[in-house]
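Hey team,

Filing this mostly as a record. A colleague (T.K.) asked me to run one chain through the structure pipeline before their review meeting, and I want the input and output archived in the tracker in case anyone asks later how it was produced. No errors, nothing strange. Just documentation.

Input sequence:
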Amino acid sequence: MKRTAKAHWEGTLKEGKGHLTTQSGILNEQNYSYKTRFEEGVTGTNPEELLLAAHVGCFTMAVGAALTQQGLQPESLDTEGTLTLESGNITGIHLSIIGKVAGISAADFEAVVKEKEANCIVSRALSVPITSESKLL
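Output structure:
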């Protein structure tokens, strides 16, 4: 399986702008620029936001899959991610997940979360520190 995406850019780094399009069409000429990347309150996306969205989606699915493999049926899993960007480097990602899952203890839920923190597909592709926390409702 292969996935594709396209980027178009015009102009200089700080004054230029571009757009991103994904194979699925979910992103279709979505604006991105220096300003959407490094300034607050500007409409558009940026590579770090997209990377983090992919990571929280992958991680949440991986936790759900692990719970299902244990014979559990998660009612809901909600993850919020925080990516830290310092001096032009991604220095870490923190994942915070809240799960509503019957039949599992908080400690067992946390064990699943910690395993998937390091081992979902996107986590394995990254070379930054990844941390997580969990809460079971």
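Quick notes for T.K.: The chain has a mean pLDDT of 95. The domain at 47-136 is CATH 3.30.300.20 (GMP Synthetase; Chain A, domain 3).
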